[in-house]
Amino acid sequence: MTWSPGGRLREERRWVSVLFADVAGFTALAARLDPEDVRALQIEYFARVSRVVHRWRGVVEKYVGDAVLAVFGAPHSDEYDAYRAVLAGLEIQRELAGLALPDGSPVRVRVGIASGEVVVDLAAVRDGGQALVCGDVVNTAARVQALAKPGSVVVTAATRRATATMVRYRELAAITPAGKPEPIDVWRADAAVPPQPDRHDAPMVGRRAELSGLAARLGEVARARTPALVSVVGPPGIGKSRLVREAARADAVARWWFARCAPAGAGPYAPLADVVRGQAGVRDGDDAPTVRHRLTEWAGALVEAGELPRVVDGLATLLGPLAAPDPHVEWACQHLLRAAARQPLVLVLEDLHHADAATVRFVRDLPAAAPRLPLTVLVTDRSELRLGETVPLRPLTNDETRRLLGRLLGRAAPTDRLLRLVGGVPGYAVELARAGVGAGGVWTEERSDEGRRRLPGPGARASEASASRHSEQIPERVRRSVSARLDQLDEPDRAVLQAAAVLGDAVRADAVSALLGADSAYARAALRRLERRGLLARRASATSQLEYGFGAGVVRQVAYARLPRAVRVDHHRAAAEWLGRGLARRRAGVDEERARHLIAASELARALHRDARPYVTAACAALAMAARCGPVSPPRTRRRWPRSTRPAGGAGASRCVPGPARPGPPPLGLRDAGDRRPATRAASAPAAGGRPGSRAAGSSPGRPRARSPAARAYA
């Protein structure tokens, strides 16, 4: 049972990070200690580890002996699950450093972290049960932990890629755990570091109006010497940081100070502390006297001598371990910024939506604390805060997206499918290009924790591009970003979006209602909410009903890939049945759509070791109807179905046999809908009431009968 009675999805495929912590030498330890001492040690150890896991918003999956298994990214993801898992691992080591055995010797712990796809039991997560996740990544985390040195945190390649700009790593020798066919690359996590800025070497397209408006506002602040707070707002990947960096490059008047808000774990005023470290030249590992010396040299050139000791005291407190907001620190920062802003100054705080409440309040009040000074506080935000004046960024138009992709790819014009995947989001375009998507929209190779895996090229069969692997063809960073957006939805709305991912680019409320068994009024309201969030967009429709499509194809890919295969089968079957009920209101392509859903259901059914023959037979009938050639019995056919959709009895297909199936969102390796494989000659089907080989009524001798677009596409 995949759906609960209340309409909630009980299981979901998700990308998570799994942390495995284990006490080194526990077996020998338990053998020489009294059982009561062992139990007391376990209770204290489990309590400390679970506190750390919960502080970093992880879920303890289970306790086994001396081991703790925790999951980050279920039931909700914030795009930084791997980062929180690594921070939790580092804190576990610090937290247990003071835990000692009865004889005074220290407790040593090994921590292993791996990231990958699992099936999550959402009901168990909500109820606090065990057996939350299932997947190879759990075994990988356990194997990595077992081979780690005591006192270390070791991560796999996928975890390291997701956190490379926020954690300092040391590469270790590859390991070959038992049961793994290839070695696994691993790294040791040493410490968290301030988030590094993203690369901004891609061309900027379609932002001329926003850039000129921002430059004009900065010039006005410098001339009038009046402070301003400006927010550049928009969804992830829309180009907020790119616009700010371009404005900085074009500004030859003001000084620019940059900081980025860390997504997790930062204390009060953390981005301000990063600004001070960068400007004063404070390095990691500097002792307290060195820090004060560097702060005195830097601040001494900005503030008056009488205020310098108090300012340095506040800045030194800011750079130390600060657990709570401090008015003295705020005064020191305000005083320093007022002094620095005697000349035009732009303070940039990126990703303010990650900042703590004290930092947000400080930023909001800063312009009022610096009157008659040319100070611009420029922040980027995902629309949650909208402080001060806002510069909203819209998706690029199709022409702008095409120009951007053309410049990124540097070869032939991008395909229509690639344009649909990007959906006007520049960040998606950049990541797809960096991942190796060319004009044909094909990946050639992908790295994972399990090693290299060849991905399908043009014309690959659907069986070679399993629907369960669709999201793996999306770059990791894009997949994390989209998954976080999906997790901002409540469960019913997310279910509607996932049903829409099955339906494709012509989503109607009555179709969603048929798939979910929901009320049509609720489906209409949910589709409108998804449109307001920018996940769906209205499409032109030949009917009186509203139709929606996905704003960006990557959203559809990720939403579909998170559905369990059994739910996909049910959804595709329900979609085909809904289309069949609508045949009285025939519209172009409805039979081909029915066949597409039935073929997808057949492939998924075979992957689940179910009988696929009913779906194959129904798909043949739908294709025959589309080709106007009447129903065809599969056992009489000359051509065969692809192996992944062939009935168990070996029956072939009709002359209306489909080309490569496209279950759900088509994998990037497959061609566009209008680019099917060439038609091949097949035996003539009998005309109504006629014999095989006889001419259809109205046809001319020696002239082939005209075929419908469906017959030409699928023949």
Automatic annotation (TrEMBL):
Biased composition (Low complexity): 456-466, 680-715
InterPro entries assigned: A/G_cyclase, AAA_16, Nucleotide_cyclase, P-loop_NTPase
Chain positions covered by the region annotation Disordered: 443-479, 630-715
Domain named Guanylate cyclase: residues: 17-145
Cited PROSITE patterns: GUANYLATE_CYCLASE_2
GO biological process: cyclic nucleotide biosynthetic process; intracellular signal transduction
SMART domains found in the cross-reference section: CYCc
Keyword entries, A-Z: ATP-binding, Nucleotide-binding
Any one GO molecular function term: ATP binding
Database matches in Gene3D superfamilies: Nucleotide cyclase, P-loop containing nucleotide triphosphate hydrolases
Biased composition annotated in UniProt, kind: Basic and acidic residues: 444-453, 467-479
Keyword Heme among record annotations: no
Signal peptide: none
CDD domains for this protein: CHD (cd07302)
Cellular component aspect of the GO annotation: cytoplasm
Name under which the protein is recorded: Guanylate cyclase domain-containing protein
